[in-house]
Amino acid sequence: MPLRRIAHLALLVLGLLSALSAYYVAQLRFNYNFNDFYPAGDPDLDYYQGYTRRFGNDNDYLLLGLEAPTGQTVFAPDFIRRVDSLTRLARRERHVVAVTSPTTISNPVVEGLGFFSLPYLHPDEPARRAQDSTLIYRTPGLVGNVFSPDARAVTLVIQTTPDLKKPPGDSLLASLRSGLAKLKVPENEYHFAGRAVAQSVFVDRLQWELAVFMSLSVLLVTGLLWFTFRTWWGVVLPLVVVLGAILWGLGVMGACGVSIDLMTALLPVMMFVVGTSDTVHIITRYVSELGYGASKRDALRVTLKESGFGSGLSALTTSLGFFTLMTSTIRPIYNFGLFTGIAVLLAFVLSFTLLPALLLLLRKPQLRVPRQQGHSWDGVLGRLFRTVLVRRRLIFAVSALVLAASIGLATRVRINSSLLDDLSKNDPVRLDFAFFEQKFAGVRPFELELKPAGGRDIYDLTVLRQTEQIEGYLQRTYGLRFAASPVTLVKSVRKAFNGGGLAEYRLPADSAELARLRGKLKLFRKKPEFSALALPDGSAGRLTGRMADVGSIRADALNEGLRRYLRTSIDSTVLRTRLTGSSNLIDKNNENLTLNMITGMSIDVLMVTLIVLALFRSLRMTVVVLIPNLVPILIVAGVMGLAGVSMKVSTSIIFTIAFGIAVDDTIHFISKLRLTLAHEPNLFRAVKHTYLLAGKAVIVTSLILVGGFSTLLFSSFDGTFYVGLLIGLTLLFGVVAELTLLPLLILYFYRHKPKAIVEPAAESLA
Length: 766
Fold this sequence. Notes:
It is a multi-pass membrane protein. Keywords: Cell membrane, Membrane, Transmembrane, Transmembrane helix. Residues 239-361 form the SSD domain. InterPro entries: MMPL_dom, Mycobact_MmpL, SSD. This is MMPL family transporter. The chain is α+β, with helices and mostly antiparallel strands. It is 63% helix and 8% strand. The protein contains 26 helices and 10 strands. The protein has helices at residues 3-25, 43-55, 77-92, 129-138, 166-182, 195-229, 232-255, 267-274, 276-291, 296-323, 331-351, 354-361, 376-390, 392-410, 428-439, 461-478, 486-496, 511-521, 528-531, 552-569, 582-616, 619-643, 654-677, 683-710, 718-749, 754-765; strands at 61-67, 96-100, 106-111, 114-119, 153-160, 190-194, 444-452, 482-484, 541-547, 575-580. The strands form 3 sheets. A 4-stranded antiparallel beta sheet has the order 2-5-1-6, with helices on both faces. A hairpin with a 2-residue loop joins strand 3 and strand 4. Helix 9 (276-291) runs antiparallel to helix 10. It is elongated and about 105 Å long. Residues 369-374 and 752-766 have low confidence and may be disordered.
């Protein structure tokens, strides 16, 4: 069959597959599910899911903070009426279960046969303002939860339906903002926090940033391709191939029913910069052959023969860099690694099917300056190669010093994360969350399950006293600013049945008094606040609370101290406890980050080792290849330590991805060296020829990669920003090592033949 007919058939098949991919891409949806970042398969996750079925989710709430106007306190009648209007508005919303606000809290009192809920606030009775404020600030559980300590702000705690999705969450936020606008509340006097806010902001920004990154990447890559090839087809063909790979990769995601989240949103940008590599190597070699006078068909044949093996190996190593992320227990990272790795392999397929077909069908390009003796790049690379040889001792010395300093600084890197660590410190959403940290109990939830032992139930006096002891430790030592438990319920009921006085807010003095209260507790067990803290049969309870977002390092230390306290100070024959909750699960990710990163890097290094051993059957060559690719990784780890950048979920992917991409050019270099050595036994001449042959593609692909990742610096997410910065730096250091250390290491250590190194080098330098 004629080659042109094969090319037309290939384009038809690829077009049909692209149409199918486009169909599945149309099914993709953006998603930010907080639960996806829990460690999948972890026993604590299974336990927490059972816990939420018993007591509800610990992050199904929305906080609305309101600041009193300048010169007023929260007890001003106008302000209280505004709060009450917002409370009624929130209560009417479809997905709101309950609202706790200054106008809904009440002091329960039982007198005779009557039950009364006495409001804490009487805005229409100015004479009672001082009395109301005094009672509120003496009542446990109100200050720091509903009222700020300085009496300048209040919070509405809006309990939402479980696992509220983005559309209804956005609708609730829009309705509340509309109500605030109607009441003429200035934007600087109200603040939102909670899952619905984070979910809304993250998804909206993901959509916007994906469009921005893709646009910037297209402009940047187009410019670099034009600068390199100076022909329309040298720009258009790589873009067609890489856009096809992105379409196919996203199509596979859509077919698998996976949504675009904070991590997979990076796939198109990653592919746009990574997927261009093979096309640049192919076109560079193709143009070189044409420049040396070969026909179009011969040039294409030589190009595919020489580039196919190296490109296949580099695609394998790059995809492995992403596939190793599948060792992560965090689902978004797992999906990102899986589908980006698949997309890299698809880019390789398109580079050796779509690109050759297009080159075959296009007319033979007219090169601007055809040369029989080489190209202008040969002169630049030749001078660079001679400089590297002359300065070899300086290169080795500087490399050793930089490496030693980097290793020292890398030891300062810490694994630490917080609930909103992907948002910059000056982000409006993070500032809103900070408002609740400063004025109220905070936004970090705390959960401890309570299980009575020895045939007791949660309302046993001994169990209650042990629970009260734990509460005291949490508030004194742990840093819990707000706490609620079955102890809160019993104290509240006791107070209600003893006239409502604050002095009566305490546990019963003895079992006889508790026995009298237990019957009365049944009157309240159907109330939401009771069912949220204790099971109806009293077989288990919940100690819940909120605190400042102290970060995972501090949280780990606090949790270790709490576990030690529970072991030594709480009688396990009376009460058993288990730490759980969404924050605890997020903190557990840190325990897996180091292991996942080491596992991923080990797999990468092992695969590269096997590839080099298969190519050269030499342990020396394996070490020679690994050094210039591991050095940039260590340097960037040192940069992280110097800049104080913590290792967290988003930045944990940097090293495996960077190594997988950086080794790509090394694979191309050594595969070309292997081909060259087949007809050039002199090592020096083979290295020099390979340097001139592969140098242009190495520089161009590295510039595209560094430039492409630099577009991520415009992200409003800190994690994405650091992914772009640190991977870009790794690749930048990588190309420097590729052009300096790699040829020197090969000449000095491969096969260890000084005669093949020194004499030709002397001839060249002479």
